[in-house]
Structure formats: C-alpha cells, structure tokens
Write a structure and sequence with these properties.
Layout (H helix, E strand, L loop, with lengths): L25 E6 L5 E2 L2 E2 L1 H16 L3 E6 L2 H6 L10 H25 L4 E6 L1 H5 L5 H11 L3 E6 L8 H11 L4 E6 L20 E2 L4 H7 L11 H13 L3 E6 L5 H6 L6 E3 L11 H8 L5 E5 L1 H8 L4 E2 L3 E4 L8 E5 L5 E6 L13 E3 L4 E3 L8
Helix pairs in contact: 1-3, 6-8, 6-10, 8-10
The protein binds glutamic acid.
C-alpha cells in the first residue's frame, strides 16, 4: 500500500526486514519510464509493483541496486515550456522531476521497511577510476542493507539509463543485471512490425545480426528502445554479468531472473579470449548503437587482432563520414564485423592516412558471421 508520507518510518535501523544487512547477492535492477510513469505522473500501481518486486528480492536475500528513469517525463508536466523537444528542455525537466520521482520512491519503499538513498551519477564516475568516491558510497550502503536508488544526473546532460545500469553492474561485479521494460524480452524480429515475431529465451552470445533483427524504438518518455538495451547487454555481458530483459508484470521477476528461471530473455556472460576489456573501453564501444561500419584491409584486421590502433590507411570502405565520438562496427576484409568502437579524430576526420580512426583501447573485439556492409 502507498502513502503520501515522505518520512522513512524506521530511519534509525537502516536494515531490511527479513534479511541480514548487506548479505545478499548483488543485483542491479533498471526500470524504464514507461514502466513507472503514466501520462507524466508517477503511476501508483506501477510504483507499488516495483516495490513488491524489490521487496521480494530482499526477502530472498538479494542486495538490489535500483536504477530508475522517469524524472524527465514527470518534470515535463511542471511547465508548458517543458513539453518541447530538445536536450536543454530535457535537462530542465529532469531538474524538476527528479526530486518528485525520488521522494515518491523513498516513501513507497519506506512503507515496506526498506531504506533508500539517492545517487545521481554520470558514466564518468564509473569509468574514470580516479573518481573513486562513488564506490565507497555504494559499498557502504549495501553493507548497511540500504537500497541505492540511482538515476543519471540528467540536469547535466541526458544519456541512457540502460547503459548506466550496465556500467554499474560491471562496476559492482553484480550477479545479475535485470532490465525491466514493457515488453517481455527480445524477439527474433521487431514485434511492432511483425506478427510472427517469436520471443528468444536464451542468448548465448549477442551478435550485430541479432541486434539488427531485434530493431525496436524509443517510447514512453525514456531514451530506451531495444537497441539501447542491447548496448547495455554488450557492456554487462562483457563485464561478466548475466543480463535479463523482462517485463514488469510479475513481481517475482527479480527472484526468478536471479535463480535463472526462464523469464524474459537471458544473455549469458561473455566468454572473452585474452584480456577482458575494461569498463571504460566497454562504455566507449557500446554506449550508443553503431552509426555505421568500416571495412578494413588485411593490415587493419591484423591491427585489430593485435589490439593496436586502427588508422585511416587501414580502411578500404566506409558507408558514412564519421564524427569524433561516433560508434562504428569494424569489419574484416570479407565484411564480417569483428570489433566495435568509438571513432577518435582530432577535429573533423582527416584524410591523413596515418592518423588514428579508432584508437587502441577504444574498441572491443566481437565475433559474427554475417557481413555488415
Ligand atoms: N534518466 C532519464 C529520466 O529519469 C531517462 C533516461 C533514460 O530513460 O534512459 O527520465
């Protein structure tokens, strides 16, 4: 049951009913805007269901970290100017909506005896090791049996919470990343365009081809869509974290996903040959869907296989002109995607053949059989 009381009824204990503090397996649970907000308002029934889901996880002995969207959608209703498109408008909407989002979550969780604390992060706190402060906060909260409630600090710039949750799952070496949404998982083709689309239960290794089949679009006020969720899946599974995409309808979904019961679509942790890519490399390679692809000459493929910088002179074909920071698929001479990474050009991409296109440490090797060009 929900109340309007913002105060935590048991602030002194800081522990969870039915579970020793901080003893459980770590799980990162991300919920999207459309699973929490209806017509610009936090939906009490949806919030109640989220609380049930988390509470059942806690009773089962898990230590959840919750990543919630919804601030922008809620904030947009607070001023007529905020209904417009544009990044600055989104940032302002987030500034107005975040406190409303968090205080409702805090009150609802407190009703169940769960103590929460709010963290507004950007990916930089997770991928730049010298910004070490957040690890102490998260570790201490989890040890004390509190539930960290995380959102992107959208007032500074809006990114994507699926990706943030994936980074967090790798940062904490969680047992599970659960991406809750309003569809029951991944389909073998875009279910909004095809009645024959069939759900996929188990993904052994994500491929660019599967990504292309899955399609999907953003909606419901968030920045999500299936392509972004798959970006998150690349990051989490390369970090060694099992990942599940499922819908919000069943409050046992967290416990079921953690127990590896068949729920939604499960992505197995990636088997990586050689050194595991660091979290910063994973972020640069997978934080957005690729803008396009480049096909390498044999020397370019060798450079990628040795983990060296890919240079303009290594490229024989490119379907786009790329800007600094774009994500691209790097394909072998026969067109197979072999890596994905971030284009790094000093200023506009230059024709200097020796200049770097994708620097060592900015791409991740992937394997796929289908040609991408
Ligand atoms: N963090 C944003 C919000 O709270 C949304 C971004 C996203 O949905 O990924 O509204």
């Amino acid at each position: 049951m929900l109340t309007n009381t913002p105060a935590d009824p048991s602030p002194a204990t800081g522990t969870r009913a039915g579970s020793p503090a901080g003893s459980g397996d770590r799980v990162v649970l991300k919920i999207g805007t459309s699973s929490l907000v209806t017509d610009g308002r936090l939906d009490p029934a949806k919030l109640d269901r989220l609380c049930d889901t988390v509470h059942r996880g806690v009773i089962a002995g898990l230590s959840p970290v919750l990543v919630t969207s919804g601030a922008i959608a809620i904030g947009r209703t607070r001023h007529p100017a905020l209904a417009a498109a544009g990044t600055v408008v989104q940032q302002v909407a987030a500034a107005l909506g975040q406190s409303r989002l968090y205080s409702a979550i805090q009150a609802a969780f407190a009703d169940r005896g769960l103590q929460t604390g709010q963290l507004l992060l950007t990916p930089y706190e997770l991928v730049e090791a010298h910004r070490g402060g957040v690890r102490h906060t998260l570790e201490t909260m989890l040890t004390l049996g509190m539930i960290p409630v995380v959102n992107e600090n959208d007032a500074l710039g809006v990114r994507n919470n699926d990706v943030l949750a994936a980074l967090l799952s790798g940062f904490l070496q969680a047992d599970l990343l659960l991406l809750l949404t309003d569809v029951p998982g991944l389909y073998d083709r875009d279910p909004t365009r095809s009645d024959d689309a069939r759900p996929i239960g188990d993904v052994v290794a994500l491929t660019p081809e599967l990504e292309r089949l899955a399609g999907g679009s953003a909606g419901g006020g968030g920045t999500g869509g299936m392509r972004m969720k798959l970006g998150a899946c690349w990051i989490a599974t390369f970090s060694g974290v099992r990942t599940v995409i499922a819908d919000t309808t069943d409050p046992d979904v967290l416990v079921a996903a953690h127990s590896a019961d068949p729920v939604g679509t499960a992505f197995r942790p990636r088997a990586v040959t050689g050194a595991t890519p660091g979290i910063g490399t994973l972020w640069r390679a997978f934080r957005t869907p690729p803008r396009g692809s480049v096909r390498c000459a044999p020397a370019g493929l060798s450079a990628v296989e040795r983990g060296e910088t890919l240079r303009h002179q290594h490229i024989v074909e490119s379907h786009q002109t790329f800007d600094n920071g774009d994500v691209v698929d790097i394909c072998a001479p026969d067109g197979r995607p072999v890596a994905r990474g971030e284009v790094r050009c000093a200023g506009p991409c230059t024709a200097d053949p020796a200049s770097p296109l994708v620097a060592a440490g900015d791409y991740v090797r992937i394997v796929e059989e289908q040609p991408c060009l």
